[in-house]
Every structure is written in structure tokens, then in C-alpha cells.
Give the backbone structure.
Amino acid sequence: MNKEWEKAVKAKKFVEERQREILRERASKGETWVPKHFSLSHTKEGDWDCFPVQKLVPPSPIVS
């Protein structure tokens, strides 16, 4: 395994900056992010909890 730390750091910074950009765009439009695969709830104490939207995981195909 090549330990190409510089490439990894650049890739990580790219991803993080893109996430910040998307967050700024949402904030400027007044949009709120809504999770796709789970519902998020907040408690009175300021904690949060999440629950899957689908209760069951669909079966995967059996490959032989």
C-alpha cells in the first residue's frame, strides 16, 4: 500500500471544502438539510436521536 499522504490530504480538503460550499449555498437559500434514509428528532435536553426510515433492510440476492 502506497502511503501517499499528500494526495490523501488534498482529497480530504477538497471534499471538506465542497461540503462547506454546499452548506453556504443552502444557508443563503434558507434551505434545511433533511436526511434521506433516517428521521432525526431532538430532545428537550438538546440531544438528538435518529431512526431509520425503512424498518427492515431488504434482502440481498444470494450469489453462488
Observations:
- The chain is about 40% helix and 15% strand.
